[in-house]
Records
---
Amino acid sequence: MKVLLINGSPHGHGSTYTALHEMEQIFHENGIETEMIHVGNQAVRGCVACGVCRKKGQCAFDDIVNETAAKFEECDGMVVGSPVYYASANATLVAFLDRLFYSTSFDKTMKVGASVVSARRGGLSATFDELNKYFTISGMPVASGQYWNSIHGNNADEAVQDKEGLQSMRTLARNMSFLIKSIQLGKEKYGLPEKEAKVGTNFIR
C-alpha cells in the first residue's frame, strides 16, 4: 500500500511540509509506503482545454503532471497539502491538480484522498474545501481527522509549535491508514462498487 504526499508549497521544508511529514511518520508506522512530490516550486501551466489528453492518454504538456500520473494510478491514497494564498490554494498546485485529474482516465474509485492546509492565520477552511473537491468528483473517499485538517504557522519553526495542528495530522494519518486497509479488504471480499454508464446532461440545448 502506498500514499502520495503532494507538497503544494513553494518552500520545500516549510509549514506545509511539516504537516505532511508528521503524517508520513504515522503512515510508516502503519506499514504504508509514502512518496512526497514537491509541486509548489515547479513551473506548471494551467489546462488550456486542448483535448489532447483524450487522444493521447496524457497531458499535452509533458512535465510533472505526466510524471505523477503513473504514480497516482498505482497508489492507494493521496494527501494534497497547500499553503493558503488569499483564502485559496497555491495557484501552481491548482494548475497541477486540474491537469492531473482531468488528463488521467483511469478509475480513481476508492483511492483515499485527504487535504491539509497551512496558514499564518486565516483562509484555511476555504482552501480545505477547495482541495477536497478534486477527490469527491472522482469517487475517492475523503479521510477525516479530529478537526479540519489544518496547521498554523508562517514557517516550519512556527508550525511545530501548533501542537493541536500536529496532533490533527497524526489523527488524520491514522484514520487514513485504517480506511486504506479497510478498503483493500473490502475490494478483496466484495470488489469495487458497480458502475452505471455515465449520464451527462447539458442544460443549454
---
Amino acid sequence: MTKASSTIKPEEAAHFGALAADWWDPKGSSAMLHRLNPVRLAYIRDASDLHFHCDSSLFRPLAGRTALDVGCGAGLLCEPLARLGARVTGLDAAAENIAVARAHAAPQGLDIDYRNEAIEDFAGKDFDLVTSLEVIEHVDDPQAFVNGLAGSLADDGLMIISTPNRTALSNLLLVELAERTGQIPRGTHHHEQFIRPEELEKLLNSAGLEVVDTSGLSYSPSKGFALSDNLSLNYLMTVVKA
C-alpha cells in the first residue's frame, strides 16, 4: 500500500512498486536509470564540490552532511550519496521500493534511513543536500511537491532536481521509442506531465528558491547519456534558497 497524499498518484506508485524487485538489475526494467545514474552523479558531485567548497579529490566530500533523496526508488542514488559520506534519508511513494532499498543496503553496511512517505508528510528539515531526480513528472501537484522540497532544505543547502522536458524530441525518444522497444517499461512516462524548464523555474521561484544552473542531458546510442547545453530531452537544475 502507499500512503495517501496530495501529491502522490496511487497509479504511479503502483507502477514503480511493481518494478521494485528488478530495480537493481542493470539489464532489467531500470536499465535506462543505471545508464543515466553516472552522469547524474557527476553533476551532483560537481555542484556539491562548488557549493560546499570541497576538494574534488576527496573520496567522502559529503562527510558530516545530510542528504535527502525524494522519490528514491530502490536506492540507486541514495547508496552512492552514502558512500560519498552523507547521512542519507530516502523517501518513496511505493512501499515495495523501500523494502527492496533496505534489503539492498543492509548487507553493504550502508545505514540509510528509508521511509515510505510523501515529501509533504515528512517532518525532516534543514538537509544540506536535497535531490529529486525524474520524479516531479509523476506527482499530482507539482507546486505542492516543490514546496515540500523547499521546506526540507537548509537555508545554505543545495538542491538538485531533474526531469524530462516537454518537447517533441522527448515524446519521440522517451515515450514512443523507448517504451515501444522495451527500453523503458510501458506506462512509465506521460508526455503531457513533462515540465518545461521555464515552468519548473517558476514553481521553484514560487517556493522561495533560485535556479543557479540548468544543464541538459542528451542521449546517443553510441555514447549513451551525457551532459549537454541542449535541454530538449531532459535537464538538471542546481537550486538554492533565494
---
Amino acid sequence: MSDPGDASPISDREDDPRRWLGSTPLLDLEDPKLRLRVRALTQLSKTEREKALALYAFVKRIPFAKPFKMRLHTGREVLDAGRGDAPDKVTLLVAMLRLARLPARIRYVSLRGEILRGLTTGVSQAARPVLEVWVHGQWLRTDTYIFDAAYMAAARQRLKDQGWEWGYGIHVGGAMLWDALSSAYVGGFPTEQDPMVVEDLGLYADPLAFVSSRAYRENHPRLARAVHWNVLAPGMERAIRDLRQDMEPGAPSPSPAPSRKPT
C-alpha cells in the first residue's frame, strides 16, 4: 500500500479504511491524556455514529482562532490550548477518531482566497483540511468542525448584513453542523461542485504529511509559508474577535456592502 502521506490517486482496491487507523508524530495516539479524553467522551456511545458525533461535537466546540505558530501542533497540544485553526482542530479530531477505532483522514483542497474575505485579503488561495471518516461502511466528509457555533452564527449574520455570499471562511447558506449520516460543508457545496475549490490536493494522514508532500514543497517553501501566515495572524485574530463581538447584546450592526459574486 502507498504511504498515507502520498497525494497520488488511491484506487478502490488500495482504499482500505484500516490503513487510516495508525499513529503519526502529530496524532500521537499513545498520549495518555488524549486516550482518557476519548474514552470519557465515547463511553456511553453504542454505535460508530454516536462515537463520531461525540468526538466531532467536542472538537467543534473548541473556539476557532488563528494563533501565531512556527510549527504544527500535536493533538495533545491542541487539546491543552483549547483553541486553534483548521490544521490544529483536524489534527485533534483525526487523532480522537482513530483512538475510537474509526478510520479518519484528511482531504486537502485549495480554495480561492475570496472565501476568507472579511478575515484577510492577504492570500490568493488557501488550503483547507476536509475531514473524511469511515462510518457504517462509507466515507463521509465535513469541514464544519473548523468553526465553533458562536463563530458560525456571527459569520453567517455578518454575510447577510453585508450582502456577501462568501466570506469569513464560509458560504452564507453553508452547513453549520454535521450529522454523521451524510457529508456536510461550510462552503455550501460538495467538494467537487464548490466554486471556491481550485484543486483537490489529495489524501493525508495529518497536516504534517501534507506540508511534507512533494507537491506542497514544490510550490510552498515551508518556512516562507509559515512566516506569511504568521504575518497575517494578528489581523485575522482581530477580525475573529470583532466578529464574535457582533453577537454580544447591544452590538451595532455593520453597514451593508454591495453584493459581489466570485468571478
---
Amino acid sequence: MASTGVEGLDDILNGGLSRERMYLVEGTPGTGKTTLGLGFLLSGAAAGEVGLYITLAETEVELRAVGVSHGWSLDGLELFEMVPADGFAEDQEQTLLHPSEVELGETVRNIMAKVDELSPSRVVLDSLSELRLLSQSPIRYRRQILALKHFFSTRQCTVLLLDDKGATGSDLQLHSIAHGVISLDQALASFGAQRRRVHVVKMRGVRFRGGYHDFEIERGGLRVYPRLVASEHGTTEGGDAVTTGSTELDALLGGGLAPGTATLLTGPAGVGKTTASVQCVVAALQRGDKASYFLFDERMSTLLKRSEALGMDLRPFLEDGQLEMRAIDPAEMSPGEFASLIRGAVEVHGSSIVVIDSLNAYLQSMPNEQFLVLQMHEVLTYLGQKGIISVLILGLHGVAGDIRSDVDLSYLSDAVVQLRYFEAHGEVRQAISVIKTRTARHERTIREFQIGSTGLQLGEPLRQFQGVLTGVPKFSGEGRTLLTGLEEAETPRR
C-alpha cells in the first residue's frame, strides 16, 4: 500500500492506496486537492520514491509557495510545468490557451515523455480541467484518459488525477475509469468556519470506511478525522463502582459511578451541575486516575477560579498533566474533530473519566438534532466499550414548571441525575434525585443539597413534597427537616 501522506485518510482507506493504480481526487477550488497531492508525493519521497508533479494550471512558483506555507521543502520532488515561460514566443503559437487537436496531442505526449525520462513511482496530474478543455468533446476526453491510464499501468506508477469539478454535474465516466475516487468538499455555515469533508466514493479491492469524514487544512497538510465507528473498537471489562466524592450521592446512585457507563446531569441554569461534575473529577484525580474535561459553556479561567473557591483546586492536576482540560468553541470545531479529541483523551492521555460540559453548546455545532443523537450514540458507545466513566451535562430551559431541553439524550445514558429548584419558607432551595440507573438499584428519594466548601453537601431525604411530577414540587414539611445555611452557599454556582 502507498500512504497518502495523511494519517486519517490512510485510516479511512484501511492502510492507503493500492500501488500502480490511477486515482481521481475531485473537489471545488479551495478544498485542498493541491495540498493532498503534494503531501502524497512528499510521503513517497520520504520513503525514497521518485515523485513527479505535472501542473497544467499552477506555476512552479505557486506550488513552491504552497510548500512554504506548510513548512515543506519541495526540492526532493520533480515539478513539471506544462506552460513554460517562453510559451508565448512567436515560434510557440500553439499554447494551452488555444485548444486544438495538435495541442492536446502535444500535451499528452509531453506528459508521457516526462514520465519515461524520470521513471517516477508517484505522479500527480493537476488538473484534468485543462485536458477537458483541450479535448473539446466527451469522447476524445475519455479516450485520452483511457490512454493515460494504460500508459501509467505499464510504467508502474501510482497516479493521482486532480479535478476541480469543472464539468457540469458529476463526471461519472471519469469515475468509472479511475481505480478509486476521493471527493473533497466544503460548506459554508450560517456562522463560524467553513466545514470541510472528505468522502471516498469508490475504491476497488479495499474495504474503506464510507460516509463523510471531517477534515481541516492546517500547516503541515490535511488533517482528516475519521468518522468514529464504535463497533471497530474492542470492549474492555469495567471494574467496581467508584465514588463521586460524596457518600450521600453515591447512595443515591446505588453505589457510585460504574466504569463504562454514562451519567447525565440535567437541570436549569445555576443549579450546580458543573460543580457536581467537578466533584466527580476531583475524586477520580485523588484516586490517581487521569481525567479529561471538555468545556463548551464558560471560560476555563472562570471554572478554575470557582472550583478553587469551593475547595476543589484543579490547577495542580493540570500542571502535572493528570487532568486534561480543553475549552471548545463549537463554531470553529467540527463534530469529527471533537470525536477525535475524545479518542485522544482515552487512547493517548489515558483518561478514566471524561466530562462534556455541556451538550447544549455541542448541539449548536451540529446541523440538526438527529445528527447529534447519532454522533453521541457512537461517542458514548465507544467510551462505554473502553470502560470509561462519562459525565454529561445538559442544561434545561426555565427555572421551574415546564422546563425542557434542546434534545432528549436520557435514553442514551446509563444514569440520569436531576437537579432542580424548589421553594420552602420563602427561600429558593436545591434538590437532587436519580431518575434511573441501569447498573444498580438506586435510591428513589429526593434530597436537598447545598454547595459548600467540599462541593455538593446532601441532606436527609425530603419526603414532605407534593406535585413532584408536575415540575413545581411544593415542600409542606417543617423547617427543621431542611439543611441549615452554609457559609459558602452564596458562592456563585451553576
